[in-house]
Amino acid sequence: MSAADQKPLGSGFHAKSEPHEVLTGVDLTGKTAIVTGGYSGIGLETTRALAGAGATVIVPVRDPAKAAMNLSTVEGNVTSAKMDLADLDSVRDFSAAVLDTVDTLDLLINNAGTMACPLDRVGPGWESQFAINHMGHFALTKALMPLLEKAKAPRVVALSSIAHKRNGILWNDIQFEETEYQKWTAYAQAKSANALFANGLSRRMEGFGGRAFSVHPGGIFTPLQRHLPIEEQVELGWLNKDGSVPPMVAQIFKTPTQGCTTTLWAATSSMLDDMPGVYCEDCDVAQLMGENSLPYEHCAPHIANDVDAERLWDLSETLLATA
Question: What does pTM read for this prediction?
C-alpha cells in the first residue's frame, strides 16, 4: 500500500451505521472467526454480529467468568478459551489448541487492548501497551497463519485508534527504558504499531488471497477507559464534572454497536478486495490528515509507510524469537 491509497471509497455507510446495516446480505455460514477481547465492549458486539451472520466465533478470554456471563447474551455458535495477550505462553497454548481443532480460519479480529495505563512491564520486560496491543497479537497471528492460508480470501482486522496521530514508533526506546514513561505516548505508539502491522501483514497474505486492514472504531465509552479517572476524562473534555456527557461529545462518540461497524465492514466488504493494508474509519477508508483535519478524524502519513511497516515487522520477529 501507499499513502495514495488512503482515500475514501464512498461505501454508503457512515460514522453511526449499525451492524445490521453493514452486514445486510452478508452470509458467514461455514466461516470461522476469532475475536480477541470478544466478550466486552465493542468486541462483544463484534462477536454478536458475526455470530448473527452465521459465523462460528471463537473468543480468547482472559477472564472466563466475565466472558461466560457476557457471552450468554449472544445467540449463535460461540465458544471461548483461555488466553492472555500479556503472556506469550498463553498465546501459544491457545493457538496450538485452535490448530488442533479448526481446519481453516476465515476472520481474525485483533480487537483486544489496553489504553493509557500506568507503567507496567510484562513478559521479557516489555512495556505493557506495546506488548499487549501489538506483540501479543503479532504472536497470535503468526501462530495462526497456517489456518489463514487454508481459508478462501481470509481477512485480518487490527484495531488501531485515532490516537496514532499523536506519534509513531519510538524506534530508539520502544520499551521506555531510557526515557520517562508517558502513558498516552505509549498508547499512540501501540496504535501506530497496530496499523503498521496490518500494512506489513497484508503483503504476507497476498500470496494466498488474504487481506489485512486496520481500523479506528471511533470514540466509544467502554471498559477501555478503566485506567482513566473521571477527573482526567473531564480534563479531556469527554465528561462534565457531574459525570454527564457533553452534547458535542455525545454527537461525536458512538455506541458500542456503532463502534464495531468499521471492523465488520473491513472484515466483509468486497470494496476492500483490492485495497490491502489500508486504515479505515467510519465504515470507509480514511483519508490522510491535512491542515483542516479535525483531531478525531483521518490518518497520519506515518502509518501508511511501507518501510516503517517492514522495519516494525522485522523488529517484532526478533522480539518474538527471543521472548
Answer: 0.93
